[in-house]
Automatic annotation (TrEMBL):
This is Carbohydrate kinase FGGY N-terminal domain-containing protein. The keyword Signal does not apply. Belongs to the FGGY kinase family. Residues 4-224 form the Carbohydrate kinase FGGY N-terminal domain. GO terms for molecular function: kinase activity. It comes from Mesorhizobium mediterraneum. Keywords: Kinase, Transferase. It comes from the Bacteria. One of its GO terms (biological process) is carbohydrate metabolic process.
């Protein structure tokens, strides 16, 4: 019996899915375009219902293109646009549109923070080795605390696009070390950083960030029933 593998890549403009055999040969593919919402200047958001529908439809298209069914798939690999902030409650329901990496609403907040802490950007770079983007998770956490505190209070988990899709597919709340390290986090520890959480004044929100595991570990098992989303 041949094993088949499914790869999912959810970007900020197109969701792509491909089916491969055990030799790495591509047998089928599917894709769906997605449209970001920009309700205010600098905002970039994605409707969670549309995001999940795009993944579901692209999977069905790829399976049909390959001439196989879901039960033929031995394993699934998942990637998506990194960082951002997707908020869900303790039932797994999305609380607001997902904020994606290119969002810049936190710029004013970052400028105020840099004025108070002169080596702010240097400390971020020394910790995660990356130039800070406004759409990283910790700046957005700080923004949400200031401007949407009620929504943030209701959130059981805050994570990136990939881990939102992981929750939908498997019911599991988790993150990988790559995502945690650039939240910003620690490149050396390959994990969330207490120092960075404190620098962004969100240390008390650490429990809302999923624990990180190695990217190659099993991220969960696809369930027969999708996780709930608002209508």
């Amino acid at each position: 019996m041949t094993d088949y593998f499914l790869g999912i890549d959810a970007g900020s403009s197109v969701t792509k899915v491909a089916v491969f055999d055990e030799k790495g040969q591509q047998l089928g593919m599917g894709f769906r375009r997605i449209r970001l919402q920009r309700p205010y200047p600098g905002w970039s958001e994605l409707d969670p219902v549309l995001a999940w529908n795009a993944v579901s439809e692209a999977i069905r298209a790829a399976l049909a293109n390959a001439g196989i069914v879901g039960n033929d798939i031995a394993a699934v690999g998942l990637s998506a646009a990194m960082v951002g902030a997707w908020l869900v409650d303790d039932t797994g329901s999305a609380l607001r549109p997902g904020i994606v990496w290119e969002d810049s609403r936190a710029q004013d907040l970052l400028e105020r923070r840099a004025a108070d802490v002169p080596d702010f950007y240097q400390r971020v770079f020394q910790s995660d080795g990356c130039v800070l983007q406004q759409g990283c998770t910790l700046p957005l956490l700080a923004w949400l605390r200031t401007y949407e505190p009620d929504v943030l209070d209701r959130a059981a988990h805050v994570f990136g696009y990939k881990d939102f899709l992981r929750l939908k597919l498997t019911g599991r709340v988790a993150a990988d070390r790559t995502e945690a390290a650039v939240a910003p986090g620690s490149a050396r520890q390959r994990d969330h950083s207490p120092e960075m959480l404190a620098l962004f004044d969100v240390a008390d929100l650490a429990h809302k960030l999923p624990a990180a595991a190695d990217s190659e570990t099993i991220g969960g098992f696809v369930t027969a029933r999708q996780q709930p989303l608002p209508a």
